[in-house]
Write a structure and sequence with these properties.
heterodimer, A: 432 residues, alpha/beta, nine-stranded mixed β-sheet, six-stranded mixed β-sheet, 15 helices, B: 248 residues, globular, binds zinc ion, cell shape (chain B)
């Protein structure tokens, strides 16, 4: 089959699967079968190349922010925002963006890829930029070990031709600098020393006496390289960054230190792409408008009260979400599913410290592993008011019982999708 | 360890030691330590909790030891220290001190562990078993039947293939999952008051019978007897039912 025919076929299938409400990766799968080099060939034409964003936590939010920042610099950005971050998902996204004459109207691609798929992807397409965020524990039951995940990201770093942007504060990511090939630059984003304790790595998740008796685990490490973007301090929405040594203040609409750090990562990437021509004023302006991706602190109005959905999938992330506000001020629900996309292994819940929930207790616990979660909370001596495994029922009881308190729901991936469906019946919920 | 018949003490304090929390603490191993600590407290005993990391002075007055899994790199880091304290551990085990060894530490409690990369880590031979690195990881929900503890539920995630020596009793027979090697139907190992297993998930919260066996043994040795009202294990019972019904 000739190329344009293959592409038109792919676009036709994409249209049909959309009508049927089918998965977004299927047309890409067809394309991959019929024309295996399709993605590589199309992306190779982009004048500013391809950006790969990977890591275990915060990819979706950081990708969304990086796209927004680059668009503010005038780039036409192609991205795989459908959430299917496979090579074939990229192919499907490409088909959706191309005109029927086969022209992709973009000058740079910013792609979110999970670690395993990033490895597969960079064998076909050499990225010009890579932004590598962190290596945490959520993928363990699929790939076995954290060190395996790190090795996957090392292959991404090794395949990058322009600049690799690395998280200076994650030791497994920082050590990837040695895999960056000669001629490829390294840029860092990082945290001021005072903020580092807020981002525990999985290695020092537990210290003597467990969460009951935390001790200072800051190790004496080699001096850190200077960061292109350092998060210096923040208080509520006011953020101070140090950009190439220069202090800059910004106001952000981001919830929680985690998202603010992701914004710093996205900014470091945008600066690397734009180079010395970067318009910093425009970037900081845009930074004040970036928002997290759905489920990463998204707020939905329910009956006139805010309900926040906080995606949790590993100990460090759950801990940070818990710490991002005073739990006693909120009604709290926790929903833990163990479907394949969540990870079947719920053992990581035992590495989260839930003490901060003691004061207010937890209103409702739900999901397939509701009883595991209740058991976990019980051993941290956190009172659980209700255990309701069915998510729809649980949500209704939670909202009804919240009174005038704002609501926070900590949820795993598939439980979040189901909660959003339930919420869309009673509230305005953005389409994913 | 000086005496095989410990003198009863009036104070109800149990010394709980977690082995290598810095290097071997993954997949929720903290849950096992926490479960022992809380249950002891709820039974009315005080708990002294000590971490033992490589190079630390070994707390020879430990009443109950627990240790977990790690990356292969973590096992290499603790291996030398484990050899150092091995004589004490073997003597304590023979003396009835309860121990729980999960995953990586379970492997090192055996004779040796030959990794997939061809390196050999000597174990301490406390349990009669040998482990080799396998080609695939054995991952998923697992259910056992144990003659002592009834149904035991958990989650396994290991590439090590473990074979028990001829006289070595397993912890249980696999009902669902792979267990020691995916072939002979055994899971874990039992000797004196030592329990070795690949189950995390964490193991003890959802298996109060195993937790209480370890607790009872520790308390009886330390305090001369165990007297306490049973705890309310409703959450654990419901969580066990769910875990058994979930897909692998
Ligand atoms: Zn394990």
């Amino acid at each position: 089959m000739s190329r344009p025919h293959v592409r038109l076929l792919g676009q036709g299938i994409r249209y049909l699967t959309k009508l049927r409400g089918g998965g977004s990766a299927f047309p890409g799968l067809v394309m991959e079968r019929l024309h295996p080099g399709f993605v590589a060939e199309e992306l190779a034409k982009l004048p500013h190349g391809v950006v790969v964003i990977s890591g275990t936590n915060g990819k979706t939010t950081t990708t969304k922010m990086a796209v927004q920042l680059l668009r503010a610099q005038g780039y036409k950005v192609f991205t795989n925002r459908t959430g299917s971050n496979f090579v074939r998902g990229v192919a499907a996204a490409l088909l959706g963006e191309m005109s029927l004459t086969g022209r992709l109207d973009a000058d740079i691609a910013v792609l979110e890829l999970d670690e395993a798929h990033a490895v597969h992807f960079v064998k076909q397409v050499k990225p010009r930029y890579a932004l590598l965020l962190n290596v945490m524990r959520d993928q363990l039951d699929r790939f076995g070990e954290i060190d395996t995940t790190r090795r996957m990201l090392a292959q991404v770093a090794a395949a990058t031709t322009g600049t690799v942007v690395l998280n200076r504060e994650d030791p497994r990511i920082a050590s990837l600098a040695e895999h960056v090939p000669e001629g490829t630059g390294v840029r860092w984003f990082g945290l001021a020393p005072a903020l580092r304790p807020m981002f525990p790595s999985d290695d020092d998740m537990r210290s003597a006496g467990g969460p009951d008796a935390e001790e200072d685990h800051e190790q004496e490490l080699a001096p850190r390289p200077p960061a292109a973007v350092e998060l210096t301090s923040f208080e509520a929405n006011r953020v101070r960054l140090t950009v190439d040594g220069e202090p800059l203040d910004a106001t952000v609409e981001l919830y929680g230190v985690y998202n603010i750090y992701n914004a710093a990562a996205a900014l470091a990437l945008a600066l690397a792409v734009a180079g010395p021509d970067a318009d910093r004023t425009a970037l900081l302006d845009e930074l004040s408008r970036v928002t997290p991706a759905f489920g990463r602190g998204e707020t939905i109005e329910v009956g006139g009260r805010p309900l926040q959905l906080l995606l949790v999938k590993n100990p460090a992330g759950f801990r940070l979400s818990l710490a991002s506000a005073r739990p006693g001020d909120y009604a709290t629900m926790i929903t833990i599913n163990d479907e394949y996309a969540d990870g079947r292994d719920v053992s990581w819940l035992w590495d989260v410290d839930f003490h901060s929930l003691r004061e207010g207790g937890v209103d409702v616990v739900s999901g397939t592993r509701a009883w595991d979660m209740a058991l976990r909370l019980d051993y941290d001596e956190v009172a659980v008011r209700e255990v309701v495994p069915g998510l729809g029922d649980a949500l209704r009881r939670f909202v009804a019982g919240a009174g005038d308190r704002p609501m926070r729901v900590f949820c795993t991936y598939t439980s979040m999708l189901e909660l959003r469906r339930e919420l869309s019946r009673v509230a305005e919920v953005a389409e994913i | 360890m000086t005496s095989s018949t410990p003198t009863p003490r009036t104070e109800r304090t149990v010394h709980l030691v977690q082995l290598y929390p810095r290097d071997m603490n993954i997949y929720g191993d903290w849950g096992n330590t926490l479960t022992l600590k809380r249950r002891l407290e709820r039974y009315g005993y005080a708990v002294r909790l000590t971490d033992h990391d490589p190079g630390d002075r070994f707390p020879a007055d430990a009443d109950l030891l627990v240790g977990g899994g790690g990356q292969d790199s973590g096992q290499f880091r603790v291996q030398e220290d484990l050899q150092r304290i091995a004589p004490e551990l073997r003597a304590m085990a023979a003396d009835g001190v309860p121990m729980l060894a999960i995953c990586g530490l379970y492997q090192l409690f055996g004779h040796e562990f030959r990794t997939g990369a061809g390196e050999t880590l000597p174990g301490i031979g406390l349990l009669d078993l040998t482990t080799v690195g396998g080609p695939t990881r054995l991952i998923g929900n697992i259910v056992l039947e144990s003659p002592e503890f009834g149904t035991v539920v958990g989650y396994e995630n290991h590439s090590g293939i473990t074979r028990l020596g001829p006289g070595q009793a397993p912890l249980g027979r696999v009902v669902k999952g792979a267990g020691n090697n995916g072939e002979d139907g055994t899971e874990g190992a039992r000797l004196h008051n030592v329990v070795g297993s690949y189950l995390h998930g964490s193991m003890l919260p959802k298996n109060p019978a195993v937790a209480d066996h370890l607790i009872r043994a520790a308390v009886e040795r330390r305090c001369g007897g165990f007297d306490a009202e049973p705890l309310d294990d409703t959450f654990a019972e419901r969580a066990r039912e769910v875990a058994q019904a979930r897909p692998r």
